[in-house]
Amino acid sequence: MRMTGWWPRARPDAGTPEEQGNDPLFVRSVARAMQVLSAFHQADAPMTLTEIAAAGEMDKSAAQRFVHTLRKLGYIERDMTDRGFVPGLRLLDHSLDYLRLNPLVERATPVLQEMRRHVHERVDLSLFDDLRVVYAARNQSKRETFFAALIGHAVPTFCASGGRAILALLTDAEVDDILARSDLRPITMRTITDPEAIREKVREAREVGYACALEEVVPGEIALGVAITGPDRRPVAAIHVAGSLSEWQPEEFCQKFGPLAQSTARALSRA
Could you give the strand order of the β-sheet that contains 221-229, starting from the edge strand earlier in sequence? Predict the structure, then answer.
C-alpha cells in the first residue's frame, strides 16, 4: 500500500482504555468505528480488510463487522476496480457541514476570493490543529498539483508559512512543546528541521508580522503566511499566499503581498 505523505493526520486524544472505561458518556464502539474510517488517512490506494484492521488496531473479525456496517450506511465503499475498500460518498456530507457551519470559513471565503483577484497567486485559508495546519479554503493559481488543490490537505505546523506565523503568536514554551512533539523530517530538500533554526524563523515572523517559507513544502514555491486570531487573541488560522520562485524574488514577493495579507488577516481577526 502506498502512502500520501509521512506526516500523520491528527487524532483526538481519547485517553487510555482505562480512562475511556471510567467515562460513563464515552461510547467505545463509536470510537472504534472512527478508527476504521481513520485507517484511510495515510492511504492513496484501496485498502484490504487486513490493512484496515492493522491501521485501526483491531482484529480482522472486528474490522469486518465495522466495515460491513459502514458500507451499509454509505461511509465505506468497494473500489470501482474491486481491489479493496475506499471512503464512501456520505463522508462529503460531513465535510460540507463543517465548512458551512464554521463562521471563520464563511467570513473568509469571499474575502479570500477578492484577495485572489488582486494578487493573481494562490490564496489559502488554513486552520490550526496543533502539530499541523489544515487547508479549509483554496483559491488556485495557474499551477497546481492534485493534493495542493484539495480541501482538508494538511502540512506540519513547523514548516508551513502559516504554521510559523501561528507559532509566532504563541509563547516560547508553547513553541518548544510543539517542536518537541513534531516529527521534524524534511518534506523537500529545503525544509528547515533544526529546532533552533525554526525558532529563529518564528522570531523573524514576530518582528515583521508574517512568515515566509522558501521551497519547504513544495519545490519551487515561495509561501507567505499571516495568522488570524480568535476573540481571545489566540491564533486559530492563517492566510497563505503562494507563488513561483521562477517569477518572484523572495524579497519582492514579501514586500508586495505581506501588507495585503496582514490587513486581510486583521480584518478577519476583528470580525
Answer: 154-156, 132-139, 122-129, 235-244, 221-229, 211-214
pLDDT average, residue stretch 191-213:
97
d(CA 82, CA 237): 39
Query: 102-270: what fold?
Result: Beta-Lactamase (3.30.450)
Burial class (CB in 10 A: 0-12, 13-18, 19+), 138: buried
Q: Is the pTM here over 0.70, yes or no?
A: yes
For the residues 247-256, what does the mean pLDDT come to?
95
Residue span(s) of the chain under CATH 1.10.10.10 come to: 17-91
| pLDDT recorded at residue 43 | 87
pLDDT of residue 145: 58
**Other beta carbons less than 10 A from residue 99's beta carbon:** 15
Residue 5 has pLDDT above 80, yes or no: no
Q: Which are the contacts of 77, defined by CB distance < 8 A and separation ≥ 6?
A: 71, 85, 86, 87, 88, 89
